[in-house]
């Protein structure tokens, strides 16, 4: 397929108008580069219309949490089609990954945009301090091949071994124990991360490329500070224990490596794999009554900060402005490094235990450092659906260098739900995550401890407090509370409620007889055990089957679920 420069411009303009801000300085070059990356896929003839009935496996379908060619769906399609005697049809409601999605720095533009995102909203939260004008908040979900792995922040984290042993206990099936799933993590990894060569702890020959942080001004101060307060810097992906680490990313030569890039793109030529894009699955007639949509768990997020950094020159990304230059473009294209590989200035991650969870980390930290440029607050508000809240809050600090820490209760107790709005399969569902609704108020108490840890780290250490002069900014709407007290922190946490984008649990695995279970430990809908007609053969393989959320970002565990699920099907059908 030949495209003229004018046609390329059209594709960029029509498929993705928003990155205009991103392209400041070097407009069309980045866009052309993105298209070049995807050239072969745009010209592929995979968009065929073979009827689904001709296929042995249709990789898709769940009623509430969408599954298609996402993180898990790509894995299942790729693994099942390894057997040439099997035909696989992958159905996906969206299209190819948008070319711009391969540039990590473009990540904020992928959310809440109709070309790449489902644009869900959650119901207004009763537990929020935010005035209703800043709600309803957005709940981004990736649309298109690769699903949310095509729009996410690329953080690679497996989770804690105890998280998976907990699944094995709930299901009474050692398939889900860490001892077993660790083999699948190794199988999927092509590990070239920060800890490469420091032990035989990661997979080397899998499809999913993992690379270390490539652009990290300011990182060393964070690592020095965590050591000062007594935490270790360690690989959080190996037998996770309390500690902090530079983040490893699902990137290949600095570009996004989604489940689609890792699992599907290399096998597009397989004759037994067909992909139908723009195929929205619509069958919704209920056959069985199961608790689908209940048990919704998510990592609710609070941005702690900004911590204004007085000493200049220690902060990297002023996203889309000074850092985006011809040099940075050349670094990205030729060396796979530089500012364009950064996702919003993310540098380090951490996990710690609150006092209620000794020995099992239940708080999750992600460190970002960037300069607050004009337009940054508006970008965050557009992603979050928070009106002008962030824009107004950050207005006085434009031009300052800053750090933020995204803090989350990694093992939240609160549970929400998702329900159908009506029987129109194109209607958006009702999503109520019920953040901070647990009866014992434990989630808030844990978060306050996390908040205190962060403030101590920034203000009372030599590396951050003294050398950089980092200081926490006060949130005006919480000024009725004394600054830096527990009540102030609770107000701050409830004011800046956001999602960390990790909803799970709405098709939970469980034992037969468990009232919360939708699927059994083999991922078959549980009603098959009661011989419900018309449902045999249906399996759910995606993030929704997690009975409890992992204290980690959920892409890696979801890809692992895809690997395990594909093996379960292969075994059941005696394939290999
Ligand atoms: C903005 C964002 C940032 C994130 N950041 C990170 C991160 O940095 N690190 C991390 O580990 N995790 C991150 N996550 C979470 C992680 O990406 C998800 O947990 C994971 O991708 C979920 O995989 P899945 O297969 O369950 O669903 P998805 O990957 O979301 O796939 C679902 C697929 O189903 C398709 N679909 C939906 N409905 C239908 C239908 N009716 N018919 C056909 N197809 C349909 C969708 O279009 C989509 O392609 C992030 C998520 C988001 C949204």
Automatic annotation (TrEMBL):
Residues 412-562 form the Glucose-methanol-choline oxidoreductase C-terminal domain. GO terms for molecular function: flavin adenine dinucleotide binding; oxidoreductase activity, acting on CH-OH group of donors. Residues 65-284 form the Glucose-methanol-choline oxidoreductase N-terminal domain. Signal peptide: none annotated. InterPro entries: FAD/NAD-bd_sf, GMC_OxRdtase, GMC_OxRdtase_N, GMC_OxRtase_C. It comes from the Eukaryota. Keywords: FAD, Flavoprotein, Membrane, Transmembrane, Transmembrane helix. Its cofactor is FAD. FAD binds at residue 281. The chain crosses the membrane at residues 16-37, 57-78. Belongs to the GMC oxidoreductase family. This is Glucose dehydrogenase [FAD, quinone]. It comes from Orchesella cincta (Springtail).
